[in-house]
Amino acid sequence: MTLNQYRDLADQLGGEVGERIAALVEELEESRKIIRWKKYPPLLGSKEVAEQIGADPKNMHHVRKNKMFPEPDVMVGTRPFWFKPSIDEYQERMEEWRNKDKPD
């Protein structure tokens, strides 16, 4: 099946299964763009990461000690950098962790 056929199937199925199929198709398309066109996701330094996660840039060394925080994707000298999707994924995991014990 082609990605368009999977997209149509996701629309037909609907619900949670359809949403998951659609999300996978979207991830595959993004991966193809990265591979085909060497389109790299945005690269964030410590300051940009701190802004995105709502932390004080001066406290990033504490944030990085969190076992759920990703290792840098790239090091330039001693300076760490992360691809934006790595930080997005970290934020999603943290949100799930915070909400795991909350009643629905």
Number of domains: 2
Q: What is the topology, as strand order, of the major beta sheet? A: 1-3-2
Largest sheet report: 3 strands, antiparallel
Calculate the mean pLDDT score and round it. Answer: 89
- Tell me the CATH architecture of the largest domain: Orthogonal Bundle
CATH class of the largest domain: Mainly Alpha
Q: Which of globular, elongated, flat, extended, rod-shaped describes the shape? A: flat
Task: Note down, in words, how this protein is organized.
With 104 residues, the protein is mainly alpha-helical. It folds into two domains: 3-37; 43-99, Multidrug-efflux Transporter Regulator, Chain: A, Domain 2 (Orthogonal Bundle), CATH 1.10.1660. It is built from five helices and three strands, in the order ααβααββα. The chain has helices spanning 3-13, 15-37, 46-53, 60-63, 84-99, and strands spanning 43-44, 74-76, 79-83. Strands 1-3-2 form a three-stranded antiparallel sheet. The longest helix has 23 residues, at 15-37. It is flat and about 50 Å long. The mean pLDDT is 89.
In brief:
The protein has 104 residues and is mostly helical. The protein has five helices and three strands.
